[in-house]
Amino acid sequence: MLTIEIDDREVIDALAKLQRRVTDLSPVMRTIGAACSSPMPTGANWPRKTAR
After folding, report:
1. Which of 27, 36, 44, 47 could be 40's S-S partner, Cβ–Cβ 3.0 to 4.6 Å?
2. Coil, strand, or helix at residue 45?
3. CA-CA distance, 51 to 25, in Å (whole number)?
4. 25 DSSP 8-state letter
5. Environment class of 43 (CB within 10 Å of its CB; exposed 0-12, middle 13-18, buried 19+)
């Protein structure tokens, strides 16, 4: 009888780490929040809206 054992712990760990990074949007939201709460430079206008 032939027995094959596969040690996939590293793969499972890497996939779990990737999943945590994709589902945790806190860093992105903090960056967006900081950008939204900072005042616009003096004399700056909102960009013109383009036709779709």
Report:
1. 44
2. coil
3. 31
4. -
5. exposed
pLDDT in tens, the chain (52 residues): 899 999 999 999 999 998 888 888 888 889 888 888 777 666 667 777 887 7
Does the pTM of the predicted model rise above 0.85?
Answer: no
Q: Which two tokens stand for residue 1?
A: 């009888």
32: enclosing H helix or E strand = helix 26-37
C-alpha to C-alpha distances, 33 to 15, 20, 28, 37, 52, nearest whole angstrom: 29, 21, 9, 6, 27
Greatest CA separation for the chain: 79
The DSSP secondary-structure symbol of 49 reads P
